Amino acid sequence: MDVYDRAVPEDLKQMAAIVASFVYNTAAREEKLPRKPLPKPRPAGTGFGGPSAGGPPAGN
Question: Per residue, what are the HEC states of 13-48?
Answer without folding.
Answer: HHHHHHHHHHHHHHHCCCCCCCCCCCCCCCCCCCCC
